[in-house]
Design a protein that fits this description.
This protein is of the alpha+beta class and 360 residues long. It is built from ten helices and 17 strands. α1 (38-52) runs parallel beside α5 (140-149), α6 (151-170) packs across α9 (328-338) and α7 crosses α10. The longest helix has 20 residues, at 151-170.
């Protein structure tokens, strides 16, 4: 997946707000307010829905984001929302197009006309933690095509800021399980943020496996495991190896209390793609897990990468078991926790010193 930044031109956009008066952005993480004229929106709606409202299976079908169209005349009512898109072709004469025309200076508008720019991201415009994405082009057909062509980057922008907001809400040093974090860092040379209600369910140095578990025995369980292979070959970094390693690990450690059944990857809906995970090339696998007898299941997300400095292949994995609930938000929460992972050399020395004090 390409992870280049979309064009950021804050100095070229006439969006001036008094910083000290901003409040935190509000609204649901999965809601995007789209400001567009109704007739123009009809022509780009399919492209926007394809990018932002694609279906994920948890295993219930859930939309990744929900788009809510509003007229630009209603901007003042919604300008405090977390996720905003302002979309219109340049110079069409619509109210939204006229608004965009007033936002962009001559240089940016010329770049749009030359087809070198169509998206401008602006952060914290009217509220803290907010992303305002401006989508514009010479006409609606070009705009629609560009939205589809740049779908990964557009989606990444909203997912990234959503994860950042979520981590800020999840992280609380007062309730951090520093005792567990210190033990993992000292014994294994890596660190991951452990929330207060997680406990160390399995710590198996023989198989390089650690299982962090939340709310066992309830109808809303969350499981995180870290597995690593020492002196590994980078050639293991392929999707077939990911499936095989995960199934091998879950067959050994994710078993029913009577030891009769175990977790495997469901063949349907699984996807693997290349991503930039914490500055590293990685494979991200998403899909569904199930017990081998089909008795239960849920979604999982998995990052597998090779760490050159330690010659280790790491597998970070999070699963959800919550049969009575929609699980999209839950899987995002555990995804954010996985992204707190650091190898020992990446840990701030002061942080490491504080954690080592926990072991004294």
């Amino acid at each position: 997946m390409r992870t280049k930044n979309l064009l950021l031109i804050p100095i070229l956009i006439a969006l001036v707000v008094a910083c000290d008066t901003k409040k935190s952005a509000t609204g649901n993480e999965d809601e995007i307010i789209v400001f567009a004229d109704s007739t123009e929106y009809e022509q780009i709606e399919a492209s926007l829905l394809t990018v932002f409202s694609k279906i994920i299976y948890t295993p219930q079908p859930e939309n990744l984001f929900i788009l809510v169209r509003k007229d630009i005349s209603d901007l003042d009512k919604y300008k405090n929302k977390k996720n905003i898109i302002i979309a219109a072709p340049l110079g069409s004469g619509s109210n939204t197009s006229n608004y965009i025309d007033g936002l962009l200076n001559r240089q940016v508008k010329e770049m749009v006309r030359q087809d070198s720019v169509f998206v401008i991201n602006k952060f914290d415009v009217w509220a803290k933690g907010q992303l305002v994405m401006i989508l514009t082009a010479n006409n609606l057909n070009i705009l629609s095509k560009k939205i589809l062509n740049e779908h990964e980057n557009l989606l990444y922008s909203f997912q990234k800021i959503s994860n950042e907001r979520l981590f800020k809400s999840l992280y609380n040093s007062r309730y951090e399980r520093k005792d567990i974090e210190a033990k993992l860092l000292k014994n294994y040379g890596w660190l991951i943020y452990v929330e207060a209600d997680y406990h160390l369910a399995i710590d198996n140095p023989e198989h390089n496996f650690v299982w962090l578990r939340r709310s066992p025995g309830t109808d809303m369980e969350r499981w995180i495991f870290v597995h690593w292979i020492n002196n590994a070959s980078p050639l293991l970094l392929n999707k077939d190896s990911v499936y095989a390693i995960r199934n091998r690990i879950t067959e050994k450690f994710y078993r029913t209390p009577d030891d009769s059944n175990f977790v495997v990857i469901e063949d349907n809906y699984r996807t693997t793609k290349e991503v930039n995970f914490l500055g590293r090339y990685a494979l991200m696998t998403q899909g569904l897990w199930k017990m081998n007898d089909g008795s239960m299941g849920g979604p999982f997300i998995n990052y597998t990468f090779y760490d050159e400095s330690t010659k280790r292949l790491y597998m970070l994995d999070a699963s959800i078991y919550a049969p009575k609930y929609y699980k999209k938000k839950l899987i995002q929460q555990v995804d954010v926790l996985l992204q707190s992972f650091m190898t020992e050399k990446e840990v701030d020395p002061k942080k490491k010193e504080d954690l080592m004090d926990e072991l004294e």
